[in-house]
Amino acid sequence: MRPSRSFLIVLFLMLMLLVYIGMRLLPDLALGMLGNLIAGLLLCLLGILVPVGLMSASMRRRRWSDAVAWVGLLSMGLFSSLLVATVLRDLVLLVLMVVGAVTVPVLYVSALAAPLLALAVTLIGYANARRVARIVKVDVPIRDLPQALHGYTIAQISDVHVGPTIKRAYLNAIVDKVNALEADAIAVTGDLVDGSVQRLASHTQPLGRLRAGDGVYFVTGNHEYYSGALEWIAEVRRLGLHVLINQHVIVHKGDARLMIAGVADYHAHHFHPEHKSDPQRAAAGAPAGIGARVLLAHQPRSATAAAAAGFDLQLSGHTHGGQFFPWNLFVPLQQPFVAGLNRVREMWVYTSRGTGYWGPPKRFGAPSEITLVRLVAA
To answer: In this structure, how many other beta carbons lie within 10 angstroms of the beta carbon of residue 323?
Structure first.
């Protein structure tokens, strides 16, 4: 397949950024001719490996493909931190230049600190990403919540991204931790996979072990549509999960009733027009006297429509909490919330930081989570 125009543009920009990094750091490191040659070759190698990481989810299955994907994705994470460290160094030097404090030792030490800082952040981020997600407990106050629903729990996992570096063992550990919570219901709020059913079905099998008294529910994320949404919907159903595409179920607790509804991803209609995300349709036909209405929607930006449809709580993901600095600063350009519990009119929105990670195996300042949401009377 020929590379797309957008991919070539990204590749060109990345190469220009690598040139910028080299020009800003190498002269001040004073490595000599041989040192500069080795450092230049390492930057060139990084320039080769980062595109490999970008294409890792679509690589053909080979004996070596997983190892290549790992190296490429780790390189993506290192490149990102190296670029940020170089930019931050230049900003600091600019301030020092204004006050006349730039000296040769300052230039050398700061040029050495940039790659060391990038490497440290990458290693710490790797350790954070590969450990099993922590449990985050959240109480959500619901007005006029029936006593029978007070303390009702929903365990949420989101954005696992089973794919090039997240496999069966990683998901198994998540499932064990979720089942140990003994929640009343379990919600999987999209971006479960990065790849086809044919390639990843054996690695998503642990989902079939998820257990909750009132059921396990799944809604699609944008990455399901990149990976063959119809095939994944069929596979998730085969594993025993209830897929909610603009639909709802009613859960009975004593004399109280709870609605658990779900919508397809916010952009699903670009792939399958019949999947157009519609909270109003998801709630349609519900009986009167519902004690609480919960919507599962992959992207937080569904919240405005969900609030208008009368939901009390929306559970979302998609943002990864930014995953690692500085990308958390850009999330608000696309989504109303980055992470945590927020309010839209009379409705609460909880945005998970995600249970896995996308792309580089790296989390820094945005820890992964398995969320235990508990409904409480306001």
So the answer is: 26
